[in-house]
Amino acid sequence: xxxxxxxxxxxxxxxxxxxxxxxxxxxxxxxxxxxxxxxxxxxxxxxxxxxxxxxxxxxxxxxxxxxxxxxxxxxxxxxxxxxxxxxxxxxxxxxxxxxxxxxxxxxxxxxxxxxxxxxxxxxxxxxxxxxxxxxxxxxxxxxxxxxxxxxxxxxxxxxxxxxxxxxxxxxxxxxxxxxxxxxxxxxxxxxxxxxxxxxxxxxxxxxxxxxxxx
Length: 214
What we know:
With 214 residues, the protein is α+β, with helices and mostly antiparallel strands.
């Protein structure tokens, strides 16, 4: 009888230890492996969506999301699209077409108020014409015209004082102005004339121009 009770107690203890050990099993390696696989899954998605074709794609700035920034997708600026449309649309003026230039001989003082273009362009343009002045009476210049050359000397792109001094210091009582009829961006921007074309154009105009009066 005593032996049977001993066996029963021993069996109960073994069963209790088995239950306790199963209840406190730590599945550390399995859990860590699952977590690692999850991180790897997102890394794989990121790499999968970094295909060359997708890297070159662009998105409208209003549709940009955090995932776009995380993936490194480029976002097209709305202003870039507008600028491209304007340059290739109705605002385009051919800066290598001689018909878009004007050569005018004016006596001094000319009655022209010049203004400097934005610093990214340089050069000066006609801001306004003084009433009764030589330019206003002549009637050929318009506000916004870009000054390209004075007599045979190119002044396009020069700082304000340097460009204006070419008129003030020119010999004689008159000077010949070469004007581009367009904006600073149209002349100095991506659609502007090549320097080789401009130099040849000015040489040709100078050769056929009348001499300034002394």
